[in-house]
Design brief:
Distance between the termini: 23 Å
Largest sheet: 2 strands, antiparallel
Shape: elongated
Helix content: 40-55%
Radius of gyration: 15 Å
Strand content: 5-15%
Order of helices and strands: EEHHH
Number of strands: 2
Length: 79
């Protein structure tokens, strides 16, 4: 169907949509995400790392300076 993954001739997947893993802090989203990305041959992006790169500061600094509401809004934009 629409957005369904397709396998190329090299065994790599072409995804029609983004895969997002959601869970509590420390649940293993990054570990599972990296393993899944490696397994199906697609890039892995970590939303926290992307936010830190864009803000040029650590997540803890964003929380301290701007608060959780601000961080969650940025997180929603990234995802």
């Amino acid at each position: 169907g629409k957005g369904a993954p397709k396998v190329s001739g090299k065994g790599h997947w072409t995804l029609g949509k983004t895969v997002v893993l959601v869970g509590m802090m420390g649940a293993g989203k990054t570990a599972v995400g990296k393993a899944l990305a490696a397994r199906i041959g697609v890039p892995f992006l970590d939303s926290d790392a992307e936010i830190e790169k864009a803000a040029n500061m650590a997540i803890s600094e964003i929380f301290q300076r701007d608060g959780e509401t601000f961080f969650r809004a940025r997180e929603t934009e990234v995802i």
